[in-house]
Amino acid sequence: MAKTRTFGAKVDFGKTASDYRAYRAGFPPEFFEALAERGWVRPAEHALDLGTGTGTVARGLAKLGMTVTGVDPASTLLDEAAALDREAGVDVSYRIGFAEKLPEASESVQLVTAGQCWHWLDRAAAAREASRVLVPGGRIVIAHFDWLPLAGNVVEATEELILMHNPSWTMAGGNGIYPGWLRDLAEASFVGLETFSFDVSVSYSQEAWRGRIRASAGVKASLGTAAIENFDAELSAILRESYTEDPLSVPHRVWVASGVKSS
């Protein structure tokens, strides 16, 4: 049986697979457009997507003509990724594996991506492995797509509720910026380091926002069944009483760090 990776002592994204597939918004089209405009995505080249989950980044790269392999330790997420690929009419290869010990041969890919997962990894080991599998001159792209808790908005209220139910959750109050990742790349001898970011609003129906939150690290990946049901009922009540807009407009930030393997 394939091993499902747990993150920390209690977080297991394998348990979120159905909600993850249905409700977690992938990176927006503007993200892939930005990669293409910079010349970082080239058709027919080989990309390796770390922590691919349900394949949101891998699928976007495949739509741009790349040959893509996605690696993730959770077989349940990869099953959902394959189903979504069939619906989208694209072909991505998936492998069970860990970013810190990749199954790929050395100097075998032109692009390594890590979307929404770098903070879960042994970052130094993952950066070294990315360098190993990249060809000289190949590029790594580390990206996040984060909701933004602003004073009085639905994200702030949702994060407060998560903390009430799961006080050990450590991801509240973020700003979507990760300067420490540049050090990860520099210490793995990547050069030409650069970053960019932009903000977008994502529309969620009331139901979809509840599903998105269930699929998060602080809820379905960490809590038991009864606790998840209680949390969801309370979030539903908060939305009905205080955030009646449907769909909700939820602010997000895309942030990217990138570097090149020296020749």
Automatic annotation (TrEMBL):
The Methyltransferase type domain, residue ranges? 48-142
The answer to whether keyword Transferase applies is: yes
Domain of life from the UniProt record: Bacteria
Q: Name one Pfam family in it.
A: Methyltransf_11
Is Methyltransferase tagged as a keyword?
yes
Q: Which residues form a coiled coil?
A: none
Signal peptide positions are none
Q: Which GO terms describe its molecular function?
A: S-adenosylmethionine-dependent methyltransferase activity
Q: Name one GO biological process term.
A: methylation
Q: Which UniProt keywords apply?
A: Methyltransferase, Transferase
The entry sums up its family as follows: Belongs to the methyltransferase superfamily.
Q: What is this protein called?
A: SAM-dependent methyltransferase
Tell me the classification of the organism that encodes this protein.
Bacteria, Pseudomonadati, Pseudomonadota, Alphaproteobacteria, Rhodobacterales
